[in-house]
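Quarterly update from the structural biology core.
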Amino acid sequence: MAGNICPICGKAVMPYGRFLREAEPYKVSACESCGSKLRRSRMVCVLLLLLMIIVLGLIVLMIYPLLEKAQSSLWLNLFIFIVLLAGWVLLTNYLGWRLIGWVTVEQTKKT
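Predicted structure, tokenized:
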């Protein structure tokens, strides 16, 4: 998966821990290997977010009737959905790190 590869030097841009802390779609980040200024591909970020929101909505629509049928308490349902949402946010972030490529800042200024 080439999402974390620098288009300039061909090495890893940053480890996941740094990505989790500081990388944002509209923020310029420096490559850890060569120091070139890079930005995330914006259109792909939007597409990933939309896809993950749709899939999460489908999962919730499948789980909710099961919880209603089991007559679980409101607090248990709320806890389950909060844990599901937190895990889904981390999964979306990880997939963004692995799948969404980087572009140079100069390349984004030309378009």
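Strands lie at 29-30, 37-40, 102-104.
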